[in-house]
Amino acid sequence: SSRASYETKYLELSGAIILLNQCAGRRRIAARLQGERAEIYILRKEYHLATEVLLSIVDSCARDSWDRAHYWRVFRLACCQRMITAGMGGKKNGRTAEGGEALSYLNTLTRCFNPRTALVAPAKTSELLQRDLEALVGRNSVSSARLGIAPFLEMELNVDPTKTGRTSHPLGYLRKKVMKHFCSVGDVISISLSITSHLPRTITLDGLRLHLLTFVEYEAVYREGSGVIEEDDIFRTLSITAPLQIEPGQNSFKFEWIPMTMGQFFLSTVEVQWKTAKFHYDSALMRRPLQGVDVLPSDPTQTIELNPLFLIPGHTQQVRLVFHSGEDIVTDGEVELICSEGLQILPPDTDPNDAEDAWCNEIMVKLEPCGPDSKVVIKTSVKSEGAKGDNLEGFIIQTSNDLSKGTVQTMKAKVMTSYRHGLYDEEIKKGEEPESAAMSTLLEAMVTTLDRPALTVDEAHAFTYAKDAIMLSVSLHCNTPVPFFIKEWNIELPPPLSLAEDGDLNHGMFEHAVAEGEELFFGFKCERNGKPIPDYMAEEDSDDEEKTILHVVLKDEFGKTFRQVLPLDLYNFFDQLRREDEFASSSSAKAELRCSHNEGIVGEPVTFTYDLNFNIKRKKSRWPKPTASNSDLFRYSILCDETDWILGGKVRGVIDCSSNDSFSLTFVGIPSRSGILKRFPEISIMQHMDNGFNENQDSATSIMSANPHMTVQSRYPAAFKSLSYTHHMALAVPSMIEIG
Asked: 428: part of which helix (H) or strand (E)?
């Protein structure tokens, strides 16, 4: 007909005009003319041709933000495709409408719902198009297709903050930013998914899954592959139980993941299943940064205990290593025990009495696999060869001189294990995550020998409190890191001392627990038996065997006993006894110096007084036989180092003891320097002989003649505090006066 011919010519002419405008860059005029051509094709029911025209111009208005015009074009495209899908468009290129156009119509329907068209779309058309969309996603023809991002649902994926934080870096091959979140194996990772629906009515989803890919697989897909994620590329899929109601507007969901595998993973794709259709939201195609998770090895909960806490030098002890698996699953492991020089160890389950050749410096023990809350105990024996000591009635003797002055002897324990998190078996049984390699850790412990005896002597004092009665006081310091109990004790006394019948005053110490840093005080009442004091007892460098020795037996928590042999230094006391014996057999004197002040200023005189008490042995004397006129006459001389004191007054003279044995001598001392002065003037006494002595002689050496000296037992003040000048007054005058 003439109408049909006119339309055909118009279409040919408009096609040429459209091509001319496109070449001239007038795309809007070209798009408008193409829209008119599409309407003519629709009137002629040539829906395939109309669809081809509309597909080429459907996005032109969207680029110019002409939302109403854009929605009209999409709506007209949907109308054409609806007719084709309904079977009214005939065949094109040999394909049926049902097999060839359903996916295209589905894609157009999803584009009808987005934030911009929702503001301009009439409610009736939106309802109509959603009904078609709901019907189309239920067809089998769309079930096998991998549909991409659909605008009617917007996705936003985020990882909730983890314990170890996050970082970001660019991903070069995708030109995107990556937010990498750090966590450990076994941590609960919460992933938030926000879905914004632009549909006018509620829909029900049949599946919501999140696919995870390793960094290596993800790079292979987008750098070397086609950019399409296949089933074999997926490391693990997280899912939310269906059905899921999606309301218009924003909807929030949570994925939870407990990783059992170390590595780096991408939250690659969110898969939305609505009836038979599956929409895939690939993170690489979304505007927000990629979300990644870096799974680090979990902190091991395994522990080891090594007992005892220390080794006793010169002793063979049992060492007990206890391995606790904690919450971990231990798949394999080994224990290595290494001894330093001076220590040796036996393999487990070896009797120390029958294995002289089995001692070695290190051993390896296989650790069998074990589950959570398991305990493995390994027992062995260790001996120290570097310290002295003899076995005495089953005890170990240890003195303060027995310890080596070299490096401390140590035994190290190393436990190397391969382990998995305690939830590994439970998670793997679900079949959601593939099996992974075990993690590894190294546990270390060390035990050393004591660098000091278990007990050391702080102080040891003895004093006479009655005739031939002596009190001995001993203070001990405990150096053991763990408490011990006092089992027994005894003391060995050299002559002329012996323990009194009721002399042990320490009955309350039995089974007393002592800890590190604690002080123990022992008291003993002793008797002097009249025997002479051996010469070596008054020697300060005498051997330990010749001194007073306190024996203390300690017991640990396992019942093991250790004898501590503690020599007591009583040199001063025995020296005093020896001197008293000498004083008792010869003439002697006791001198006590008194000071008028405890402190003073340099140069200020201080009054000193010597109180003398003589013990004259007239029958048996070691002095040369004197004449009757001078048998009770004694010379004295008071001397002092001038760097401390300058002496004045009567510091030399003669004392007559014929009628009195007690005297007081007063003189003056002037401090010559400031500070604490602990040296005081000393007195020297000798028997007076007729050798021309003159009291006023200046030379002290003339007084200190060859006459024998008397033994003087002197006592001095503790100290004198000498203060420096605080001010000084003087008058300055010129040395020469010039007369002009």
From this structure: helix 424-429
Residue among 616, 610, 608, 651 at smallest CA distance from 633 = 616
- Nearest 5°: CA angle at 693, between 688 and 696? 125
| Token representation of residue 414 | 């190393």
Residue 47 CA to residue 56 CA, distance in Å, equals 14
Question: Bridge-partner residues for 337, per DSSP?
Answer: 363, 413
- With beta carbons less than 8 A apart as the criterion, state whether 213 and 279 touch: no
> What is the Cα 281 distance to its own chain's centre?
46
CB 132 within 8 A of CB 109: yes
Amino acid in position 95: R
Residues in the chain: 740
C-alpha–C-alpha distance, residues 539 and 164, integer Å: 70
User: In 3-state terms, what secondary structure has residue 456?
Assistant: strand
Q: Please report, as a single letter, which amino acid is at residue 665.
A: L
Task: Report strand pairing: 652-656 vs 633-639.
Answer: antiparallel
The answer to whether 244 touches 253, Cβ cutoff 8 Å, is yes
Q: Report the candidate in 553, 473, 477 with the shortest Cα–Cα distance to residue 510.
A: 553
CB contact at 8 A, 189 and 257: yes
Look at residues 376, 515, 343, 375 and name the one whose alpha carbon lies nearest to residue 446: 343
CA distances from 606 to 129, 642, 678, 681 (A): 121, 15, 15, 12
Give how far Cα 70 sits from Cα of 489, 529, 552, Å: 106, 126, 102
One-letter amino acid for residue 619 of the chain: K
Residue with tokens 């038996």, as numbered in its chain:
529
Q: Is the bond into 734 cis (omega within 30 degrees of 0)? A: no
Neighbours of 330 (CB within 10 A): 25
pLDDT, residue 625, reads: 45
Contact 645, 674 (CB under 8 A): no
Residue ranges of the chain whose pLDDT lies below 50: 90-97, 99, 386-406, 544, 619-629, 692-693, 697-706, 737, 739-740
Contact 528, 497 (CB under 8 A): yes
- Give the Cα separation of 213 and 236 in Å (integer): 7
Nearest to 578 by CA among 533, 636, 547: 533
Alpha helices in 25-95 (DSSP H): 27-43, 47-57, 60-63, 67-85
386-387-389 Cα angle (round to 5) = 140
Measured distance CA(628)–CA(624) in Å, rounded: 12
Contacts of residue 65, defined as CB under 8 A and 6 or more positions apart, other chains included, come to: 116
Confirm if 61 and 31 have CB atoms less than 8 A apart: yes
CA dihedral sign, ordered 41, 46, 50, 53: negative
Segment (H or E) for 439 = strand 439-449
**Closest listed residue to residue 239, CA positions, set 223, 220, 256:** 256
- CA 71 remoteness from chain centre: 66
**Helices and strands (DSSP H and E) totals, the chain:** 12, 42
What is the pairing mode between strands 633-639 and 682-687?
antiparallel
- Quote the Cα angle for 361-381-364, to 5°: 50
Nearest to 109 by CA among 84, 139, 130: 130
pTM: 0.61
Helices 27-43 and 2-24 pack at an angle, to 10 degrees, of 160
**Rounded-to-integer distance, Cα 398 and Cα 395, Å:** 9
Phi first, then psi, for residue 233 (nearest 5°) are -80, -15
CA distances from 456 to 240, 400, 533 (A): 71, 7, 27
- Nearest partner of 240 among 259, 257, 253, judged by Cα: 253
Burial environment of residue 34 by CB neighbours within 10 A (0 to 12, 13 to 18, 19 or more): buried
Type and span of the H or E element at 426: helix 424-429
**Cα separation of 191 and 210, whole Å?**
10
Candidates 625, 629, 618, 633; CA nearest to 586 is 618
Residue 616: closest CA among 575, 660, 653: 660
